[in-house]
Amino acid sequence: MIRKKQKSEAAVTAAGLAITLGLAFVIAIVLIFVLSKEPGTAIYQFFAGPFLNKYYFGNMLNSAIPLIFTGLGISVAFRSSVFNLGGEGQVYSGALVTTVICLALPQANGYLGGVLALAAGLAAGAVLAGLSGYFRMKWGTDELISSFLISSAVVLIVNYFITGPLDDPASSLLATRKIGEQYRLLQIFKPSKLNISLLFAVITAVLVSFIVFKTHWGYEMRVCGLNREFARYGGINVSAYLVLPMVLSGALHGLAGGLTVLGTHHQALKEFTFGMGWNGIAVALIAKNRPLAVIPAAIFFAYLDAGAKAAMLHSDVTYEIAAVIQSVIFYLVTAQAIYNFVRYQHRRVPA
User: Fold this and answer.
1) Chain segment 132-177, per-residue pLDDT in tens
2) What was the pLDDT predicted at 351?
């Protein structure tokens, strides 16, 4: 009976999402017709552009990789009803620390050094997010505010190191020196930048889903997220679940930054993570905090971004128009109204 109800709820969710996507794309087409002087080209490039060649398609998938990690980090935090708004700084610090470790060990074995660098980047993100969780547990400080403030300060600190002590004077970019060849992840879809970190992202999503839904720790975390008072009366250490989900969330953000360095840029560029942390929140909302659903949600987000860029390159669509279209689609997808309407209609139908 329970399994049948779960399948029914999943079908309703899928129906609501399909209706929402259809409505969002219709509105996007209408907006392009209104705002563009060559709507045919703009619409074609917006929807088909990311699939026109291997370079566009591979880069679209590659841009989804860090979104998978940040989306997972946000979904873990949200599941426990803690809010991590510091993803930007956590990704950025993870990228910098990973780069520093690789540059400090230029002759190290690529596998051993790469694992060490990623572990350090992961730890950097975990510490930053964990601080906000600790402040919430110790003094009741709102982690939503503290994580944002810590992130804002960290971004400035990382900028200082990239443009100051670690800046590469031989480069025309505001960036550190490039990491050694042995640290760079294998590209799997040339000439695009898609690399094997896509496999790591999928494995991580499966692992996070297992932790959240199949372990005792995940069960207690979800109970705390639903009702902390009930969890406390049930003997659960509620204080621990103010810190641990934030630590895991930050670790996933730090891992996103580290893998972006090893797989895509091979150096830390100034503000190259701009938007990754905030976009992770949108991905988690689209996925409704389900770890496995984060993968298609991140690809969908990357598709919209790639389509907007293709439309800007090959038509008269400006950045502002593309941003408006993306915002409309994200708003409709993350809104609950259509889903709630479909669920209400489903429940009205007699068994």
Assistant:
1) 999 999 999 999 999 999 999 999 999 999 999 999 988 888 899 9
2) 46
Joined together, the tokens standing for residue 247 give 């630590």
**Same domain assignment for residues 299 and 259:** yes
Closest by Cα among 189, 196, 193 to 118:
196
Q: How many domains does the chain have?
A: 2
Q: What is the pTM of this model?
A: 0.91
Q: What is the CATH number of the domain that holds 254?
A: 1.10.3470
Is 134 contained in some domain?
yes
Other CB atoms within 10 Å distance of the CB of residue 180 = 17
302 and 288, same structural domain? Answer: yes
Block residue for tokens 């994580």: 147
Buried b (16+ CB within 10 A) or exposed e, 329-344: bbebbbeeebbeebbe
Residue 240 has pLDDT above 50, yes or no: yes
- CA 293 vs CA 284, 288, 300, 321, 336: distances in Å: 9, 8, 11, 28, 17
Does a structural domain hold residue 146?
A: yes
d(CA 32, CA 1): 47
Question: Are 78 and 211 spatial neighbours (Cβ–Cβ below 8 Å)?
Answer: no
Q: Which amino acid is at 280?
A: G
Closest by CA position to 21, among listed 328, 329, 288, 322: 329
| DSSP codes, 205-274 | HHHHHHHHHHSHHHHHHHHHHH-HHHHHHTT--TTHHHHHHHHHHHHHHHHHHHHHIIIIISS-BTTTTT
Q: Residue 9's domain spans which residues? A: 1-36+317-351
